[in-house]
Design brief:
CATH topology of the largest domain: Fic-like fold
Largest sheet: none
Number of strands: 0
Radius of gyration: 16 Å
CATH architecture of the largest domain: Orthogonal Bundle
Number of domains: 2
Structural class: mainly alpha
Number of helices: 8
CATH class of the largest domain: Mainly Alpha
Strand content: under 5%
Shape: globular
Order of helices and strands: HHHHHHHH
Mean pLDDT: 93
């Protein structure tokens, strides 16, 4: 049996205070938590793709927080709020507001000046949001969903994020993490390839 709050492979472990933010009192197993989060994410995905959004919508901190809240708001009371503690990944929590402001300013500049092709811009958006890691949990899922929607708003199709390979889930996860680490070192090629694989 897996403890309710044991972090799955690749997930950020929640602090004791964040664990108190679980809304549904009936959740006692990790499988129940995963199911509730997935249902909430699917509702948010439907909402996000039903909206008419221009690319500049993504250069907005409030919008990013709103999407996170829609993805996790039925499950966690901290959904849509920046984390208040440090993690083993992401920037120090006291730098989140500054990094997010710089991030959305950069995204606005990239969009207004055609700095990157659509796929590269959306993948850079994804990577930078994951790198900042602004929320207690769900940063990877948020950034992939938003990168998908940003790509669509730029006239491209959604990314596949490794789903077209007939590999075990762990293999796909390992390729994804490896690609993120390479992007951390300013080599975006593996992440761009993974996004369309």
């Amino acid at each position: 049996m897996v403890d309710l709050f044991d972090a799955d492979d690749g997930q950020t472990e929640l602090s004791a205070e964040e664990r108190k933010g679980l809304k549904p009192a009936y959740i006692t197993y990790r499988s129940e938590l995963n199911r509730e989060e997935q249902e909430n994410i699917l509702k948010a995905e439907k909402w996000l793709f039903a909206r008419r959004l221009g690319p500049l919508s993504f250069a907005d901190q409030d919008f990013i927080c709103q999407v996170h809240e829609r993805m996790y708001g039925d499950v966690w009371d901290w959904a849509g709020e920046y984390r208040q503690s440090d993690r083993n990944i992401g920037v120090d929590y006291y730098r989140i507001h500054l990094e997010m402001r710089t991030f959305v300013d950069d995204v606005r500049y990239w969009l207004e000046h055609g700095t990157y092709a659509a796929d590269e811009l959306a993948v850079r958006f994804h990577h930078r949001l994951v790198w900042i890691h602004p929320f207690p949990n769900g940063n990877g899922r948020l950034s992939r969903l938003m990168a998908d929607r940003l790509a669509v708003s730029l006239g491209e199709s959604r990314f596949t994020w490794g789903r077209t390979h007939l590999l075990r889930a762990g293999d796909v996860r390992a390729r994804y993490v490896d690609a993120l680490r390479k992007a951390d070192r300013h080599d975006l090629a593996a992440l761009l390839a993974f996004a369309r694989s």
